[in-house]
Amino acid sequence: MAFLPVLTCKLMNYFKEILKYAKPYKSYAVLNIISNVFYALFGALSFVSLIPMLDVLFDKTQAVNVAPAWEGINNTMDYIKGYLGYYITTQTDGKEQALIIVIALVLILFFLKNLFGYLGMYFIAYLRNGVLRDIRDDLFKKIVHLPISFFSEKRKGDVIARTSADVLQIQNSFLSILELIIKEPLNIIFTLAIMLVMSAKLTIFMLIFLPISGFLISRLGKKLKKRSGQVQKEQGYFLSLLEETLSGLKVIKGFNAEDRLTESFQNSTNRMYRFAVKLNHRKGFASPVSEFLGILVIGILLWFGGRLVLIEESIDPTTFIGFMVLAYNILTPAKALSKASYQIKEGNASAERVLEILHTKNEIEDKKGAIAVLAFAKAIQVNNVTFSYEEEPVLKNFSLDIPKGTSVALVGQSGSGKSTIANLLTRFYDVENGTITIDGTNIKDVTLQSLRDQMALVTQDSILFNDTIATNVALSDKTASEEQIVDALKIANAWEFVKDLPKGIHTNIGDSGGKLSGGQKQRLSIARAVLKNAPILILDEATSALDTESERLVQDALEKVMKNRTSIIIAHRLSTIQNADHIVVMKKGEIVEQGTHTDLLAKEGLYHGLVGMQSLA
């Protein structure tokens, strides 16, 4: 069949990549193949068994008193018919009993065919769903290990679409075809073998036309990959828009922007509507065309076979009817394989999007021979670091020493590079020029896990999960006891409200902690840092979004946490850093002043001006 090379070529694009996930389930694949072998065998025989039934039904069975002799495979049908005539003549009493026997044979063969068909589906289910699970697991693992910079370039909704809809499309296309390329060729092979035995002339005639129709069918899917890719890309966009809308509902409503967001969403769904309509039109066109081409082949066979029956009389009418049934039995799997050629194009588009994430190189990962930091002992040193997110440098030749046990505050206007220091210390991003060392070792030579084990992070936005308080606080240690969790909550001044909740630490806090106030959420973030008990504490604008009362409670909690720890405090509110051992004033990525609160006030420089603006002088 001419379309099979085309199908094979398309399969090879991404099929090898997906097939790697099937290796753990190869035993199920073997059982599926064995089941399909018997399914194809009994499927072909079940249709052949209709011929003797028709012979009995139309009284075409000849009386034979001597058992026929086997004269080779070319005379198989004559031997079967002769033996049936001999059996009916000598072993049965009347035509009714003969009819019952051949009907029983037909039922047994169809039963066996369907039994092995079910077993084939039973075993392949483990492979298909196992591969689906493993791809999603690998995708999630890859996503959580990719650097933060990857997600500044990708929409979250697009990543969600790749993990859900695209992976499902791979199952519906590639993994369905995994079944087809075993099952349907076996059906064709067994059926063709029997057809050759029945009539070599008719079979060869049919094989002339079948590849032509198969090639025409395969050509219909030429643009499906492009259409499918457009649909999936647009689906990722509108999922991103939906996710952003749900996250920013307060702002949207506060600015009366409902109509504007609705218009953006409708523009996206309209684009997807146009792409999907074109895709469905092409897919819908393929079905009737392939159906018509199949019937056209059957029509030509009826003409040629009819001549063999009526004019040349080289084939029996009942054998010809059986042959036509088998021919239709070949057209069904042939049409399925032709359909698979444009299913591949849809699967290719999805596989391309999924494998793009799986193949993304993680620029921030452990280098070969990286060592583990067992305990922070001396100091963190930032040496002549230059860094930029795009073209304009955010930090320029920045240097800073942070001895163990000291508290260092970074202050300055927005965009001065304060939070970038925190991102570089934790290796959310890597420095471009210069080095950052911990106890004299470049952090690029240290394992990420051991580096981040030394640090606890409290950010301006309290990142909480839709789970219990206990789970959120014990994020770094799932084995933490309830006593440890409660102790951490007490240090963070959070126990005072947690103890009054209906289920205490086992209370679910809702999506992003939506059931709690801003101050309560921030205190839970601090409790999470307390329980981790890391020697280095990074506070990135930890109180800037709080009201005065919440700020007092949070600041009190932070002062408890910072005792005996090395603290890096990034702050807008200068009232929170007056007691810091060292204050660094930044402007446009450079240090303009540094010293204690008292020293900097005495200089009457930039820091003095910032304090004056906040009425703290």
From TrEMBL:
Annotated InterPro entries: AAA+_ATPase, ABC1_TM_dom, ABC1_TM_sf, ABC_transporter-like_ATP-bd, ABC_transporter-like_CS, P-loop_NTPase, Type_1_exporter
Keyword Cytoplasm part of the UniProt annotation: no
Keywords (A to Z) from UniProt: ATP-binding, Membrane, Nucleotide-binding, Transmembrane, Transmembrane helix
Transmembrane segments: 29-51, 98-124, 188-217, 292-311
Membrane topology qualifier: Multi-pass membrane protein
CDD domains in UniProt: ABC_6TM_MsbA_like (cd18552)
Signal peptide from the UniProt entry: none
All residue ranges annotated as the ABC transmembrane type-1 domain in the record: 30-346
Pfam families in alphabetical order: ABC_membrane, ABC_tran
ABC transporter domain sequence ranges: 380-613
Gene Ontology MF: a single term: ATP binding
Cellular location(s): Cell membrane
PROSITE patterns: ABC_TM1F, ABC_TRANSPORTER_1, ABC_TRANSPORTER_2
Protein name: ATP-binding cassette, subfamily B, MsbA
